[in-house]
Amino acid sequence: MSTMPDLQALLAEASALRVATDEESRASYGLDWTRYWQADTPAVLFPGTVDEVVAIVRWARQHQVALVPSGGRTGLSGGAVAASGEVVVSFERMNRIGRFDALDGIVEVEPGVITRTLQDFAREHGMYYPVDFASSGSSQIGGNIATNAGGIQVLRYGMTREWVAGLTVVTGAGEVLELNRGLVKNNTGYDLRHLFVGSEGTLGFIVGAAIRLTQAPPETAVMVLALPDLSCVMRVFDAFRRALSLQAFEFFSDKALRHVLARGAARPFESAAPYYVLLEYVRPAGGAEPDLAVFGHCAEQGWVVDGVVSQSDAHARALWRLREDISEAITPHTPYKNDIALRISEVDPFVARLDALLAEAYPDFEVVWFGHIGDGNLHINVLRPASMALAAFRQACEHVNQAVFELVREAGGSVSAEHGVGLFKRDYLSYTRSPEEITLMRGIKQLFDPDGVMNPGKLLA
Protein backbone atom coordinates (compact mmCIF):
# COMPACT_ATOMS: atom_id res chain seq x y z
CA MET A 1 0.00 0.00 0.00
CA SER A 2 1.15 3.53 -0.73
CA THR A 3 2.07 6.04 1.94
CA MET A 4 -0.97 7.86 3.26
CA PRO A 5 -0.88 11.56 2.35
CA ASP A 6 -1.65 14.09 5.08
CA LEU A 7 -5.39 14.72 4.74
CA GLN A 8 -5.72 17.04 7.72
CA ALA A 9 -5.12 20.22 5.76
CA LEU A 10 -7.69 19.15 3.18
CA LEU A 11 -10.32 18.22 5.75
CA ALA A 12 -9.77 21.51 7.56
CA GLU A 13 -10.88 23.30 4.39
CA ALA A 14 -13.52 20.77 3.28
CA SER A 15 -14.85 19.25 6.49
CA ALA A 16 -17.86 17.62 4.78
CA LEU A 17 -15.66 15.74 2.32
CA ARG A 18 -16.06 12.00 2.61
CA VAL A 19 -12.94 9.84 2.70
CA ALA A 20 -12.52 6.06 2.49
CA THR A 21 -9.28 4.30 3.36
CA ASP A 22 -10.50 0.74 3.93
CA GLU A 23 -9.02 -2.02 1.79
CA GLU A 24 -12.25 -2.89 -0.03
CA SER A 25 -12.85 0.71 -1.18
CA ARG A 26 -9.26 1.19 -2.28
CA ALA A 27 -9.31 -2.04 -4.28
CA SER A 28 -12.66 -1.29 -5.91
CA TYR A 29 -12.26 2.38 -6.74
CA GLY A 30 -8.65 1.99 -7.85
CA LEU A 31 -9.48 -0.01 -10.99
CA ASP A 32 -11.67 0.14 -14.08
CA TRP A 33 -12.80 -2.86 -16.17
CA THR A 34 -9.26 -3.62 -17.30
CA ARG A 35 -7.57 -6.31 -15.22
CA TYR A 36 -3.92 -5.84 -16.08
CA TRP A 37 -3.00 -3.68 -13.06
CA GLN A 38 -3.27 -3.88 -9.29
CA ALA A 39 -4.95 -1.03 -7.43
CA ASP A 40 -2.49 0.99 -5.33
CA THR A 41 -4.21 3.97 -3.77
CA PRO A 42 -4.01 5.19 -0.16
CA ALA A 43 -7.43 6.85 -0.13
CA VAL A 44 -10.64 7.51 -2.04
CA LEU A 45 -12.20 10.98 -1.83
CA PHE A 46 -15.93 11.57 -2.42
CA PRO A 47 -16.62 15.28 -3.06
CA GLY A 48 -20.22 16.45 -3.02
CA THR A 49 -19.74 20.01 -4.31
CA VAL A 50 -17.63 21.98 -6.75
CA ASP A 51 -15.99 23.78 -3.83
CA GLU A 52 -14.82 20.45 -2.43
CA VAL A 53 -13.34 19.51 -5.80
CA VAL A 54 -11.48 22.83 -5.90
CA ALA A 55 -10.15 22.18 -2.38
CA ILE A 56 -8.96 18.71 -3.41
CA VAL A 57 -7.08 20.00 -6.46
CA ARG A 58 -5.44 22.86 -4.55
CA TRP A 59 -4.41 20.46 -1.78
CA ALA A 60 -3.00 18.05 -4.35
CA ARG A 61 -0.93 20.83 -5.94
CA GLN A 62 0.41 21.99 -2.60
CA HIS A 63 1.37 18.50 -1.42
CA GLN A 64 2.24 17.06 -4.85
CA VAL A 65 -0.40 14.36 -4.65
CA ALA A 66 -1.45 12.71 -7.91
CA LEU A 67 -5.21 12.40 -8.50
CA VAL A 68 -7.19 9.88 -10.56
CA PRO A 69 -10.87 10.56 -11.39
CA SER A 70 -13.38 7.78 -10.85
CA GLY A 71 -16.82 7.55 -12.44
CA GLY A 72 -18.60 4.27 -13.11
CA ARG A 73 -15.19 2.65 -13.72
CA THR A 74 -16.47 0.91 -16.86
CA GLY A 75 -13.51 2.03 -18.97
CA LEU A 76 -11.40 -0.43 -20.94
CA SER A 77 -8.15 1.51 -21.33
CA GLY A 78 -6.84 1.83 -17.77
CA GLY A 79 -7.75 5.52 -17.71
CA ALA A 80 -9.30 5.28 -14.23
CA VAL A 81 -6.64 3.02 -12.73
CA ALA A 82 -4.73 4.16 -9.65
CA ALA A 83 -1.74 1.83 -9.74
CA SER A 84 1.07 4.12 -8.60
CA GLY A 85 -0.08 5.57 -5.29
CA GLU A 86 -2.50 8.15 -6.68
CA VAL A 87 -5.48 9.34 -4.62
CA VAL A 88 -8.80 8.47 -6.25
CA VAL A 89 -11.51 11.13 -6.60
CA SER A 90 -14.94 9.53 -7.02
CA PHE A 91 -17.82 11.64 -8.38
CA GLU A 92 -20.62 9.29 -7.40
CA ARG A 93 -21.99 11.74 -4.79
CA MET A 94 -22.24 14.50 -7.41
CA ASN A 95 -25.17 12.81 -9.13
CA ARG A 96 -27.90 15.43 -9.33
CA ILE A 97 -29.91 16.40 -12.39
CA GLY A 98 -30.50 20.13 -12.34
CA ARG A 99 -32.30 22.66 -14.49
CA PHE A 100 -34.05 21.45 -17.65
CA ASP A 101 -35.33 23.87 -20.25
CA ALA A 102 -37.69 22.26 -22.75
CA LEU A 103 -37.41 25.25 -25.08
CA ASP A 104 -33.73 24.74 -25.83
CA GLY A 105 -33.72 21.02 -24.96
CA ILE A 106 -30.78 21.28 -22.55
CA VAL A 107 -30.46 19.67 -19.14
CA GLU A 108 -27.79 20.48 -16.56
CA VAL A 109 -26.25 17.46 -14.85
CA GLU A 110 -23.49 16.67 -12.40
CA PRO A 111 -20.75 14.25 -13.47
CA GLY A 112 -21.91 11.33 -11.34
CA VAL A 113 -25.31 10.98 -13.06
CA ILE A 114 -25.67 7.45 -14.42
CA THR A 115 -26.11 7.35 -18.21
CA ARG A 116 -29.36 5.39 -18.02
CA THR A 117 -30.72 7.80 -15.42
CA LEU A 118 -30.26 10.63 -17.93
CA GLN A 119 -31.86 8.50 -20.65
CA ASP A 120 -34.86 7.84 -18.40
CA PHE A 121 -35.10 11.54 -17.48
CA ALA A 122 -35.16 12.50 -21.15
CA ARG A 123 -37.84 9.91 -21.89
CA GLU A 124 -40.02 11.15 -19.02
CA HIS A 125 -39.90 14.62 -20.59
CA GLY A 126 -40.80 13.40 -24.06
CA MET A 127 -37.22 13.68 -25.32
CA TYR A 128 -34.27 11.43 -26.01
CA TYR A 129 -30.61 11.10 -25.02
CA PRO A 130 -29.10 8.96 -27.77
CA VAL A 131 -25.64 8.03 -26.44
CA ASP A 132 -26.05 4.37 -25.50
CA PHE A 133 -23.90 1.31 -24.85
CA ALA A 134 -23.89 -1.91 -22.85
CA SER A 135 -22.58 -0.19 -19.69
CA SER A 136 -25.25 2.57 -19.63
CA GLY A 137 -26.63 1.19 -16.38
CA SER A 138 -23.39 1.88 -14.50
CA SER A 139 -21.31 4.37 -16.50
CA GLN A 140 -21.46 8.03 -15.48
CA ILE A 141 -21.88 11.14 -17.61
CA GLY A 142 -18.61 12.70 -16.44
CA GLY A 143 -16.69 9.61 -17.52
CA ASN A 144 -18.58 9.48 -20.81
CA ILE A 145 -17.51 13.04 -21.55
CA ALA A 146 -13.94 12.52 -20.37
CA THR A 147 -13.59 9.59 -22.80
CA ASN A 148 -15.90 10.93 -25.53
CA ALA A 149 -17.90 7.70 -25.32
CA GLY A 150 -19.44 6.31 -28.48
CA GLY A 151 -21.67 3.24 -28.45
CA ILE A 152 -24.30 1.66 -30.64
CA GLN A 153 -25.97 4.71 -32.23
CA VAL A 154 -22.97 6.73 -33.41
CA LEU A 155 -23.99 6.04 -37.00
CA ARG A 156 -26.99 8.35 -36.63
CA TYR A 157 -26.29 10.45 -33.54
CA GLY A 158 -22.52 10.76 -33.28
CA MET A 159 -20.27 10.57 -30.21
CA THR A 160 -20.81 12.11 -26.77
CA ARG A 161 -19.07 15.28 -27.99
CA GLU A 162 -22.09 16.10 -30.19
CA TRP A 163 -24.36 16.37 -27.13
CA VAL A 164 -22.20 18.48 -24.82
CA ALA A 165 -23.55 22.03 -24.99
CA GLY A 166 -21.43 23.32 -22.11
CA LEU A 167 -19.08 22.23 -19.36
CA THR A 168 -18.04 23.33 -15.90
CA VAL A 169 -14.53 22.13 -15.08
CA VAL A 170 -11.95 22.44 -12.34
CA THR A 171 -8.54 22.64 -13.97
CA GLY A 172 -5.32 21.17 -12.64
CA ALA A 173 -4.54 24.68 -11.38
CA GLY A 174 -7.68 24.64 -9.22
CA GLU A 175 -9.55 27.16 -11.38
CA VAL A 176 -13.26 26.84 -12.16
CA LEU A 177 -14.11 27.41 -15.83
CA GLU A 178 -17.58 27.76 -17.37
CA LEU A 179 -17.20 26.65 -20.98
CA ASN A 180 -19.74 27.66 -23.66
CA ARG A 181 -22.73 27.80 -21.22
CA GLY A 182 -25.08 25.87 -23.52
CA LEU A 183 -24.93 28.29 -26.42
CA VAL A 184 -25.68 27.08 -29.94
CA LYS A 185 -23.60 29.89 -31.44
CA ASN A 186 -20.55 31.23 -29.67
CA ASN A 187 -17.95 32.34 -32.18
CA THR A 188 -15.47 33.90 -29.74
CA GLY A 189 -12.30 32.00 -30.44
CA TYR A 190 -11.03 28.72 -29.03
CA ASP A 191 -13.77 26.41 -27.77
CA LEU A 192 -12.05 25.05 -24.66
CA ARG A 193 -15.04 22.82 -23.99
CA HIS A 194 -13.83 20.44 -26.69
CA LEU A 195 -10.38 20.14 -25.12
CA PHE A 196 -11.98 18.55 -22.07
CA VAL A 197 -14.16 16.15 -24.07
CA GLY A 198 -11.93 13.10 -24.45
CA SER A 199 -9.16 14.48 -22.20
CA GLU A 200 -9.42 11.51 -19.77
CA GLY A 201 -9.05 13.72 -16.69
CA THR A 202 -5.55 14.84 -17.65
CA LEU A 203 -6.42 18.56 -17.83
CA GLY A 204 -8.90 18.81 -14.98
CA PHE A 205 -12.12 17.41 -13.58
CA ILE A 206 -15.54 17.78 -15.19
CA VAL A 207 -17.91 18.92 -12.42
CA GLY A 208 -20.97 19.87 -14.46
CA ALA A 209 -22.35 19.56 -17.97
CA ALA A 210 -25.10 21.06 -20.07
CA ILE A 211 -26.36 18.14 -22.15
CA ARG A 212 -28.38 18.59 -25.30
CA LEU A 213 -31.39 16.29 -25.73
CA THR A 214 -33.28 15.55 -28.94
CA GLN A 215 -36.70 14.43 -30.07
CA ALA A 216 -37.73 10.85 -29.43
CA PRO A 217 -36.89 8.68 -32.46
CA PRO A 218 -39.57 7.23 -34.71
CA GLU A 219 -40.49 3.56 -34.48
CA THR A 220 -37.56 1.33 -35.36
CA ALA A 221 -37.00 -2.28 -36.35
CA VAL A 222 -34.04 -4.56 -35.74
CA MET A 223 -32.69 -7.10 -38.21
CA VAL A 224 -29.99 -9.74 -37.73
CA LEU A 225 -28.42 -11.22 -40.84
CA ALA A 226 -26.08 -14.18 -41.34
CA LEU A 227 -23.17 -13.56 -43.73
CA PRO A 228 -20.97 -16.18 -45.40
CA ASP A 229 -17.79 -14.12 -45.53
CA LEU A 230 -16.09 -10.99 -44.14
CA SER A 231 -16.06 -9.43 -47.59
CA CYS A 232 -19.87 -9.26 -47.53
CA VAL A 233 -20.15 -6.99 -44.49
CA MET A 234 -19.62 -3.61 -46.12
CA ARG A 235 -21.57 -4.61 -49.24
CA VAL A 236 -24.58 -5.31 -47.04
CA PHE A 237 -24.01 -2.05 -45.18
CA ASP A 238 -23.94 -0.04 -48.40
CA ALA A 239 -27.11 -1.70 -49.72
CA PHE A 240 -29.14 -1.03 -46.57
CA ARG A 241 -27.72 2.47 -46.05
CA ARG A 242 -28.95 3.50 -49.50
CA ALA A 243 -32.52 2.29 -48.86
CA LEU A 244 -33.15 2.90 -45.15
CA SER A 245 -32.48 5.40 -42.37
CA LEU A 246 -30.00 3.41 -40.29
CA GLN A 247 -29.50 4.04 -36.57
CA ALA A 248 -27.00 1.26 -36.00
CA PHE A 249 -25.04 -1.26 -38.01
CA GLU A 250 -23.20 -3.75 -35.80
CA PHE A 251 -20.98 -6.69 -36.64
CA PHE A 252 -19.98 -9.84 -34.72
CA SER A 253 -18.42 -13.19 -35.45
CA ASP A 254 -19.86 -16.63 -34.81
CA LYS A 255 -17.18 -17.11 -32.14
CA ALA A 256 -18.59 -14.06 -30.34
CA LEU A 257 -22.16 -15.34 -30.71
CA ARG A 258 -21.26 -18.71 -29.24
CA HIS A 259 -20.11 -17.08 -26.01
CA VAL A 260 -23.45 -15.27 -25.71
CA LEU A 261 -25.45 -18.41 -26.53
CA ALA A 262 -23.55 -20.28 -23.80
CA ARG A 263 -25.09 -17.86 -21.30
CA GLY A 264 -28.63 -18.82 -22.30
CA ALA A 265 -29.46 -16.54 -25.24
CA ALA A 266 -31.51 -18.00 -28.10
CA ARG A 267 -30.02 -18.38 -31.57
CA PRO A 268 -31.80 -15.90 -33.90
CA PHE A 269 -32.43 -18.52 -36.62
CA GLU A 270 -31.45 -22.10 -37.41
CA SER A 271 -28.69 -21.25 -39.85
CA ALA A 272 -25.16 -20.73 -38.60
CA ALA A 273 -22.63 -18.55 -40.37
CA PRO A 274 -19.11 -17.26 -39.67
CA TYR A 275 -20.28 -13.63 -39.40
CA TYR A 276 -23.40 -11.66 -38.53
CA VAL A 277 -24.61 -8.09 -38.73
CA LEU A 278 -27.29 -6.39 -36.67
CA LEU A 279 -28.94 -3.27 -38.01
CA GLU A 280 -31.51 -0.97 -36.46
CA TYR A 281 -33.44 1.31 -38.78
CA VAL A 282 -36.50 3.53 -38.92
CA ARG A 283 -39.44 1.28 -39.70
CA PRO A 284 -40.86 2.10 -43.15
CA ALA A 285 -44.24 3.84 -43.08
CA GLY A 286 -47.37 3.20 -45.08
CA GLY A 287 -46.93 -0.52 -45.55
CA ALA A 288 -43.79 -0.15 -47.66
CA GLU A 289 -41.21 -2.91 -47.28
CA PRO A 290 -37.88 -1.62 -48.63
CA ASP A 291 -36.09 -3.52 -45.85
CA LEU A 292 -37.34 -6.86 -47.19
CA ALA A 293 -36.53 -5.80 -50.73
CA VAL A 294 -32.94 -5.02 -49.77
CA PHE A 295 -32.70 -8.30 -47.90
CA GLY A 296 -33.85 -10.12 -51.03
CA HIS A 297 -31.30 -8.29 -53.15
CA CYS A 298 -28.48 -9.16 -50.74
CA ALA A 299 -29.56 -12.80 -50.65
CA GLU A 300 -29.58 -12.95 -54.46
CA GLN A 301 -26.03 -11.59 -54.51
CA GLY A 302 -24.93 -14.28 -52.07
CA TRP A 303 -24.04 -11.71 -49.39
CA VAL A 304 -26.66 -12.99 -46.91
CA VAL A 305 -27.64 -16.58 -46.13
CA ASP A 306 -30.37 -16.01 -43.52
CA GLY A 307 -32.00 -13.29 -41.46
CA VAL A 308 -34.72 -12.25 -39.06
CA VAL A 309 -36.66 -9.00 -38.45
CA SER A 310 -37.94 -8.04 -35.00
CA GLN A 311 -41.66 -8.57 -34.52
CA SER A 312 -42.03 -6.68 -31.24
CA ASP A 313 -40.10 -4.48 -28.85
CA ALA A 314 -39.28 -7.54 -26.74
CA HIS A 315 -38.01 -9.37 -29.81
CA ALA A 316 -35.87 -6.36 -30.76
CA ARG A 317 -34.34 -6.29 -27.28
CA ALA A 318 -33.59 -10.02 -27.50
CA LEU A 319 -31.82 -9.52 -30.82
CA TRP A 320 -29.78 -6.63 -29.41
CA ARG A 321 -28.66 -8.85 -26.54
CA LEU A 322 -26.82 -11.03 -29.07
CA ARG A 323 -24.53 -8.09 -29.73
CA GLU A 324 -24.53 -6.17 -26.45
CA ASP A 325 -23.85 -9.16 -24.20
CA ILE A 326 -20.61 -10.12 -25.95
CA SER A 327 -18.30 -8.08 -23.71
CA GLU A 328 -19.78 -9.50 -20.52
CA ALA A 329 -19.81 -13.03 -21.93
CA ILE A 330 -16.08 -13.02 -22.71
CA THR A 331 -14.96 -11.18 -19.55
CA PRO A 332 -14.13 -14.42 -17.66
CA HIS A 333 -11.48 -15.08 -20.32
CA THR A 334 -9.60 -11.82 -19.48
CA PRO A 335 -9.66 -10.58 -23.08
CA TYR A 336 -6.88 -8.42 -24.44
CA LYS A 337 -8.78 -5.73 -26.30
CA ASN A 338 -7.95 -3.59 -29.29
CA ASP A 339 -10.40 -0.88 -30.28
CA ILE A 340 -9.55 0.58 -33.69
CA ALA A 341 -11.23 2.97 -36.11
CA LEU A 342 -10.98 3.52 -39.85
CA ARG A 343 -12.65 5.57 -42.52
CA ILE A 344 -15.63 3.63 -43.87
CA SER A 345 -13.99 3.39 -47.29
CA GLU A 346 -10.95 1.68 -45.74
CA VAL A 347 -12.81 -0.99 -43.77
CA ASP A 348 -13.17 -3.61 -46.50
CA PRO A 349 -9.51 -3.84 -47.58
CA PHE A 350 -8.33 -3.43 -44.00
CA VAL A 351 -10.29 -6.30 -42.45
CA ALA A 352 -8.95 -8.77 -45.02
CA ARG A 353 -5.35 -7.85 -44.12
CA LEU A 354 -6.10 -7.84 -40.41
CA ASP A 355 -7.83 -11.22 -40.54
CA ALA A 356 -4.77 -12.78 -42.14
CA LEU A 357 -2.44 -11.11 -39.63
CA LEU A 358 -4.41 -12.27 -36.60
CA ALA A 359 -4.68 -15.84 -37.89
CA GLU A 360 -0.90 -15.98 -38.26
CA ALA A 361 -0.09 -14.11 -35.03
CA TYR A 362 -2.48 -15.93 -32.70
CA PRO A 363 -2.67 -19.55 -33.95
CA ASP A 364 -3.28 -20.89 -30.43
CA PHE A 365 -5.59 -18.14 -29.12
CA GLU A 366 -9.27 -17.59 -29.72
CA VAL A 367 -9.85 -14.19 -31.37
CA VAL A 368 -13.34 -12.69 -31.06
CA TRP A 369 -14.38 -9.91 -33.44
CA PHE A 370 -17.25 -7.49 -33.07
CA GLY A 371 -17.86 -3.79 -33.35
CA HIS A 372 -19.74 -0.76 -34.63
CA ILE A 373 -18.57 -1.42 -38.15
CA GLY A 374 -21.09 1.00 -39.66
CA ASP A 375 -18.97 3.86 -38.27
CA GLY A 376 -15.64 2.16 -38.97
CA ASN A 377 -15.05 0.81 -35.44
CA LEU A 378 -13.73 -2.72 -34.83
CA HIS A 379 -13.20 -4.43 -31.46
CA ILE A 380 -10.62 -7.22 -31.47
CA ASN A 381 -10.61 -9.44 -28.38
CA VAL A 382 -7.93 -12.05 -27.82
CA LEU A 383 -9.03 -14.54 -25.15
CA ARG A 384 -6.57 -15.82 -22.58
CA PRO A 385 -6.20 -19.62 -22.36
CA ALA A 386 -7.13 -20.80 -18.89
CA SER A 387 -3.70 -22.35 -18.37
CA MET A 388 -1.73 -19.24 -19.33
CA ALA A 389 -0.49 -16.75 -16.75
CA LEU A 390 -1.87 -13.24 -17.14
CA ALA A 391 1.55 -11.58 -17.47
CA ALA A 392 2.69 -14.03 -20.16
CA PHE A 393 -0.58 -13.59 -22.04
CA ARG A 394 -0.33 -9.81 -22.00
CA GLN A 395 3.28 -9.96 -23.21
CA ALA A 396 2.29 -12.22 -26.11
CA CYS A 397 -0.51 -9.86 -27.15
CA GLU A 398 1.62 -6.74 -26.88
CA HIS A 399 4.21 -8.39 -29.12
CA VAL A 400 1.59 -8.43 -31.92
CA ASN A 401 0.32 -4.90 -31.26
CA GLN A 402 3.04 -3.26 -33.30
CA ALA A 403 2.04 -5.17 -36.43
CA VAL A 404 -1.67 -4.52 -35.88
CA PHE A 405 -1.16 -0.80 -35.27
CA GLU A 406 1.18 -0.52 -38.23
CA LEU A 407 -1.73 -1.69 -40.40
CA VAL A 408 -3.92 0.91 -38.71
CA ARG A 409 -1.36 3.65 -39.39
CA GLU A 410 -1.03 2.64 -43.05
CA ALA A 411 -4.82 2.87 -43.39
CA GLY A 412 -4.93 6.31 -41.73
CA GLY A 413 -6.93 4.98 -38.77
CA SER A 414 -6.93 5.34 -34.99
CA VAL A 415 -5.57 2.95 -32.36
CA SER A 416 -8.47 3.95 -30.10
CA ALA A 417 -11.93 4.47 -31.54
CA GLU A 418 -13.96 5.00 -28.38
CA HIS A 419 -12.27 3.40 -25.36
CA GLY A 420 -9.72 6.17 -24.93
CA VAL A 421 -5.96 5.88 -24.48
CA GLY A 422 -5.39 5.64 -20.72
CA LEU A 423 -2.50 3.39 -19.75
CA PHE A 424 -3.38 0.70 -22.25
CA LYS A 425 -2.73 2.61 -25.49
CA ARG A 426 -0.47 5.37 -24.20
CA ASP A 427 2.70 3.91 -25.67
CA TYR A 428 1.02 3.49 -29.06
CA LEU A 429 -0.23 7.06 -29.41
CA SER A 430 2.36 7.80 -32.10
CA TYR A 431 0.67 5.35 -34.47
CA THR A 432 -2.23 7.82 -34.75
CA ARG A 433 -0.78 11.19 -33.70
CA SER A 434 2.21 12.92 -35.26
CA PRO A 435 5.21 14.03 -33.15
CA GLU A 436 4.10 17.64 -33.65
CA GLU A 437 0.60 16.87 -32.35
CA ILE A 438 1.95 15.05 -29.31
CA THR A 439 4.24 17.98 -28.50
CA LEU A 440 1.28 20.36 -28.66
CA MET A 441 -0.78 18.01 -26.48
CA ARG A 442 1.96 18.03 -23.86
CA GLY A 443 1.97 21.82 -23.96
CA ILE A 444 -1.79 21.95 -23.44
CA LYS A 445 -1.54 19.63 -20.44
CA GLN A 446 1.23 21.75 -18.93
CA LEU A 447 -0.94 24.86 -19.32
CA PHE A 448 -4.00 23.38 -17.60
CA ASP A 449 -2.13 21.16 -15.13
CA PRO A 450 1.12 22.96 -14.27
CA ASP A 451 2.08 20.60 -11.43
CA GLY A 452 1.16 17.38 -13.24
CA VAL A 453 -1.28 16.13 -10.60
CA MET A 454 -4.20 15.33 -12.91
CA ASN A 455 -4.31 11.62 -13.85
CA PRO A 456 -0.56 11.50 -14.56
CA GLY A 457 0.76 8.81 -16.87
CA LYS A 458 -2.53 8.46 -18.74
CA LEU A 459 -2.86 9.43 -22.41
CA LEU A 460 0.63 11.01 -22.40
CA ALA A 461 3.74 9.33 -21.02
Automatic annotation (TrEMBL):
Q: Which organism is it from?
A: Crenobacter intestini
Q: Which GO terms describe its molecular function?
A: FAD binding; oxidoreductase activity
Give the record's keywords alphabetically: FAD, Flavoprotein, Oxidoreductase
**Keyword match Transferase:** no
Pfam families named among the record's database cross-references: FAD-oxidase_C, FAD_binding_4
Q: An example of a Gene Ontology BP annotation on this entry?
A: respiratory electron transport chain
Listed cofactors: FAD
Protein family = Belongs to the FAD-binding oxidoreductase/transferase type 4 family.
FAD-binding PCMH-type domain location is 37-216
Q: What protein name does the entry list? A: FAD-binding oxidoreductase
